[in-house]
Amino acid sequence: MARSTRTNGRTTPRGRRRFFNYPRSHVKSFRRWLPSWRVVVGTMLTGVALVAGVLVAAWVTTDVPTKLPSVGAQTSTVYWGDGTTEMGKYASEDRTLVDYETLPDYVGNAVVASEDSTFWTNSGVDFRGIARAFYNNLKGGGRQGASTLTQQYVERYYTDTVTDYAGKAREAILALKITQQQKKEVILGNYLNTIYFGRGAYGIQAAAQKYYGVNAADLTVSQAAMISGIIPNPTNWDPANNPEQAEHRWKRSLDNMLKDGHIDKAQYDEAIGAGFPAAIEYVKSDKYAGPTGYLLAMVEKELASEGIDISEADLTSKGYQITTTIDPAMQKAAVDTIDTLPQESRGDDNPVSPNLRAALVSIDPNDGSIRALYGGADFLQNQYNNATLGAAQGGSTFKPFTLVAALENGHTLDERYDGNSPMTFEGANDGGDWKVRNFSDHSWGNIDLVKATAQSVNTVYAELNIETGPDKTAEVATRLGITKGKVAPNASNVLGTATVTPLELTNAYATIAAGGQKATPHIVAKVVDARGNVKYEAPGADKRTAEFDTETMAATQYALSQVVEQGSGEPAKALGRPAAGKTGTSNENKSAWFAGFTPGLATVVGLYQTGPENEQEQITPFGKWANMNNPEITGGSWPVEAWTSYMQAATANLPVGEFLPYTPPKPKPTETPTETPTEEPTEEAPATEEPEEPQQPENVTVPGVVGMESRAARAQLEAAGLKVRITEEFSDQQPRGFVISQSSMSEVPPGSTISLVVSKGVDPGQQPTEEPTEEPTETPDPGDGGGGGPGGGGGGGGGGTNPGQGG
């Protein structure tokens, strides 16, 4: 029987209970719509359980990630040659990591007092702060954050910036976990190395440098308070942008530090009494701006080269300390020297063409270190480095290459040659005639190699190169430091028809200055990693290669010193110490050089000018040289004066060295033997009362011997009191053994050397074609002269109808 209930005296069946008794059927009025306390409690417990479950799951599944790649990135710093003065930096972010233990306590505590006063005691999350911020946000107040210092650390070190609630929740979990896993000192230290402080500074070390020019370990209490105070808005609160707000934040930090016990009253009073610590001026600058940009670009390229192997990514992130070879005083002198070129922008008289390119390079001959280099006025405006990329014809600066080659072949400086102008060398260039002129078509008569070098006599050096062999000149150029293959093995190479960069030419002259010891030019002296370990050190003097013997180099140094003493480089005598060098001017004055050296420093100054299509054109005369009767720019004009001015400053603190001792060759015995000496010494002849003035022998006329058999030609010349030098070459103009050409047919002093070219007969092999020069312009043929381009002259040499350019 079914159960029943009595209602109003009647019995009725009991209804089935509902699982959810809502609305409550047994409750009258509106209360039936209110849930029972059991439902409320049950719902709350269920919600708590769900939240707890979610939190537990989140805790279990949330792992501390690896740090962001950027936070470990450190700035690599480049220093001048003194190892302490900063040249520039390479960085994705300007950051230098510091060890927290090296910092005064008040540096970290200033940040704690400003950003999170409970840092040392909280669990990584400030729950009261979170609740306060949440309530404020619900009320519609300004959006408020409640991140602890540890949460900020998580955001900057592990997760990057997050703004949504899910991201903030994950951030809070990570803060709790990290607080359990890491010591507070580690957290604070990493935070200090990570946070952005404004002025492009990431981390406390960079900030200390940017605001006060000191290391973080040397910050005062007051300075630390200012830097920590502006962390929330470092750009807008920078003292340079908002001094009132910066001072307010500074005072707030000091007050908090005193209140929280991080400093005592005496420290507080001292900081307040001294006043707001004014920051240094902030000057935004690009590391590549100005002439220094060329140096930094060279450093970056050399670091990436084989042997050092530092990539751009490593360079901008691994905190290397890089010391260059550049001497700051020498570099300043180089920039100041180039700045003496008259400029239209300054209102100077007779300014240079805007297309003029100038370069200066200084190398230490002892180890190849580049001590100064000017590649251009502003790397940001033009990345083309005139010193390392700007190639122009070398002109007469190539004559020493032939001189060295000749000396190695047994020639001596006292040998005499015909220095008249013009001279034609038959068959000199692949069977064609080669007409060479001296500068201004000047004839020097019969002169020795010292004078020919000092006065840059083209005709003498043309003959010397033919005798020595143009291939030998090309070989010597390479051994000295010119890139292999640049100097073609043709007769005109002695006059500098090949193009060369100022850096290459300086290296070649540095080898001469070093007595034949060649080093590799370099700009990086030392690299130290972030841990203080030496990663790379440039090779020293012991790594040079001996390319030439000292006897050859002693003679070369002496000959080039006479360029300064009595020749085209005479303005360099003002240096007041041993100096040597060579002027150089290419055909049509398209380039002008002075390449010189002291025993301790080799320097090249070079000019060239480009046209509308980047072709090289004649240098527009400037300055005082524009007002001369024959206005032109040669190596003996501005380049040698600039070289001298620069070297006076650059060598001021260098010891005065000496060149290798040069001993002139002993006079050769005469052809006619003297009387056979007796066994007994003869009596000493009485001295005459007054010695007579010796009589100078009269010149002799050189007989013409072209077409004669070589032995007969030699006999005829020797009978005239002349010496004979014979070289041989293939020819179809004369039979084998007959004279093709001779160096002179004019009057010369007795004992002069006459060079004869004797036929070896017809070349049995195929005639070689002329190798092109490095220039895109036409290679000069013999009729045009040997100077690179129509009218030839190449650095000193002319030809054709135009006079060649003297060095």
Automatic annotation (TrEMBL):
Transmembrane segment boundaries: 39-60
Pfam families tied to this protein: PASTA, Transgly, Transpeptidase
Domain PASTA: 696-760
Keywords recorded for this protein, A-Z: Carboxypeptidase, Cell shape, Cell wall biogenesis/degradation, Glycosyltransferase, Hydrolase, Membrane, Multifunctional enzyme, Peptidoglycan synthesis, Protease, Transferase, Transmembrane, Transmembrane helix
Region (Disordered): 568-587, 657-701, 726-807
One GO-annotated biological process of the protein: cell wall organization
Acidic residues composition-biased segments: 677-695
Database matches in CDD domains: PASTA_pknB
PROSITE patterns noted in UniProt: PASTA
GO molecular function terms noted in the UniProt entry: penicillin binding; peptidoglycan glycosyltransferase activity; serine-type D-Ala-D-Ala carboxypeptidase activity
UniProt feature, compositional bias: Gly residues: 783-807
Any one annotated GO CC term: outer membrane-bounded periplasmic space
Reactions catalysed: [GlcNAc-(1->4)-Mur2Ac(oyl-L-Ala-gamma-D-Glu-L-Lys-D-Ala-D-Ala)](n)-di-trans,octa-cis-undecaprenyl diphosphate + beta-D-GlcNAc-(1->4)-Mur2Ac(oyl-L-Ala-gamma-D-Glu-L-Lys-D-Ala-D-Ala)-di-trans,octa-cis-undecaprenyl diphosphate = [GlcNAc-(1->4)-Mur2Ac(oyl-L-Ala-gamma-D-Glu-L-Lys-D-Ala-D-Ala)](n+1)-di-trans,octa-cis-undecaprenyl diphosphate + di-trans,octa-cis-undecaprenyl diphosphate + H(+); Preferential cleavage: (Ac)2-L-Lys-D-Ala-|-D-Ala. Also transpeptidation of peptidyl-alanyl moieties that are N-acyl substituents of D-alanine
Biased composition (Polar residues): 740-756
Record family assignment: In the N-terminal section; belongs to the glycosyltransferase 51 family. In the C-terminal section; belongs to the transpeptidase family.
Name of the protein described by the UniProt record: PASTA domain-containing protein
Species of the source: Cellulosimicrobium cellulans F16
